[in-house]
Amino acid sequence: MPYDPDYPLVCMDESCKQMIGEVRGPIPCKPGQPERIDDEYVRNGVAEIFMDVEPLAGKRHVTVTERRTRKDWALQIKRMLDERYPDAIKVRLVMDNLNTHNVASLYETFEPEEARRLAKRLEIHCTPKHGSWLNMAEIELSALKGQCLDRRIPDMATMQAEVAAWERNRTNSARKIVWQFTTADARIRLKRLYPKI
Asked: How far apart are CA 48 and CA 16, in angstroms?
């Protein structure tokens, strides 16, 4: 599918990361001895990570929040539509079918007129059950976790700063996702999900 700024394809997913602080500070490395980190740690809560990716343009946006409710999802959608895609006619949104990922969340969060305005600008495509790996945002979340969140991060401010730096670097490199899974591949590998006619 060619890139179309009027109908951008955006993949969205979310995950969480536990914030972990040190009980005792690490002992710095010295010649012949690596840095030593104590196994004991303190739990500082959980951060929720919302990721949206426009694979054909190489754009990413990551938001770190304290919760993952219907309202949080609706606020992410509003920001996406009004701030990142204000000129798009309709955003083709790919996501899993989590119970918060639906138009009803918009109506629970906003006045009916506003919810309807937002809903009319979405064309929602849900990945099949057990097929969330088809969502390219899940691939980006995996990259984020491996490249940025693979260590102890003690608090929300540090988490947000680290994720923002990763997002800037990843987006500035304009890394596009070249998806190789075709409709023909899907018909072969996912035939059990297709209805029997």
From this structure: 4
Inter-axis angle of helices 112-120 and 70-79, nearest 10: 60
CATH node for 9-193: 3.30.420.10
Query: What are the E-state strand segments in 96-175?
Result: 122-126
Write out the two tokens for 77: 């959608």
The pTM of this model reads 0.78
Average confidence (pLDDT) per 10 residues, the chain, 197 residues: 86 89 78 79 86 88 90 94 95 86 91 96 85 78 89 90 91 72 71 66
- Return the pLDDT at 80: 95
**CA distances (Å), 130 to each of 11, 97, 125, 126, 133, in order?**
17, 10, 15, 11, 8
Which pLDDT does position 22 carry in this prediction? 73
